[in-house]
Amino acid sequence: MSAGTGLNAVGLIRAKREGVELTPDQLHALLGAYLSGEVGDEQMAAFLMAVCWRGMSAPELSAWTGAMLGSGIRLDLAAAGRPTVDKHSTGGVGDKVSLVLVPLVAACGAAVPQMSGRGLGHTGGTLDKLEVIPGWQSELSPERIARQLREVGCVICAAGQELVPADRRLYALRDVTATVESIPLIASSIISKKVAEGTQALLLDVKVGSGAFMKDLTAAHALARTMMNLGAAYGVRTSAWLTPMDEPLGRAVGNAVELSEAIEALEGGGPEDLRRLVLEEAREMLRLARIEADPELALRDGRAATVFREMVLAQGGDPDAPLPRGDSLALVRAPAGGFLQGLDALAVGTAAWSLGAGRSRQGDPVSATAGVLCLVKPGEAVAEGEAVLELVGDNRAGLPAALAALEGAIRVGASRPPQQPVVMSRYPAN
Question: What is the pTM of this model?
């Protein structure tokens, strides 16, 4: 028994381990006892592992998500005066979509309250990219978030300490107990935060491929369906997409280099694959928000770029400050001539991480300038010995590991490969 509540934590762990469906009251009591300290980390770790093995039924998952939501506040965004819609990506290599998408959708009339995170391992974090801007602040109060949504139309910030504090505790525990991959635990973590931030509608972008968290297509479909249904159960109009992540998105991987590429896209340029995905996702978010607008026009006429500047200024940043640039450290060349058939996203992400663009543990510092530039993309012609990748940064210490990660990452063939679709599967909102 856990002291003070009479909760039989061991009994609940054993029941979940044996596949017994727990009641909402049992799940709420277990999480509450953990947050109060009556259930220890070792017991909660055992419960999370049991969930990894046994999963959760739909009623269990809904109850667990509700318990997480109940651990903190929920934002009220009614004062924004616009329909609210957000997007969540499970993360990948070169995924700077949010930097373009959030101000673009806001420029079309929606309010976009995006709570983002920092990178871990080979996948980058949106906050790390924006934090290369001098003065830019990620920590905002609920009152400031609401005001910025009303005045600017969008915000990209860290989830505050008051928003689903249970998730921070559980994620830290999952990270060190090999329980991160559980679909119910992923779904409850993401959806609880999105419901708590107060959005009315949500687009989920589940990345699939070598550079993504989800590498298995079947598991990715299961995660997309689970999150979509869970979001809908909490009153959020939710659609879910599967998008490919076998090659880097865009041509830049790193913090300052990705931000620079995103600004280029906001100004009407940027790589074709990034532009195509941003516009597809913008149209879906506007559909979810029930707004009729043309996002391509908002890019072309400069409205999206203006909203981005206003968002940066509102969060203390200087949008006119030059972005930091790293030295050119090395070039990786094509082993033969022909067409670039493949460029392994995981290898490129690992190389950028080795140079300092990512972190091994939460809280580690990252380099603003470290990264990899893709000078040639799959489908483009390449000559033997031509530079395909450029490694950049401010510290050569990680260069040997970065080069080692890229061995075999470049595939060249005689024929041009077919163009990869920007969206593999779509689960529209109910």
Answer: 0.93
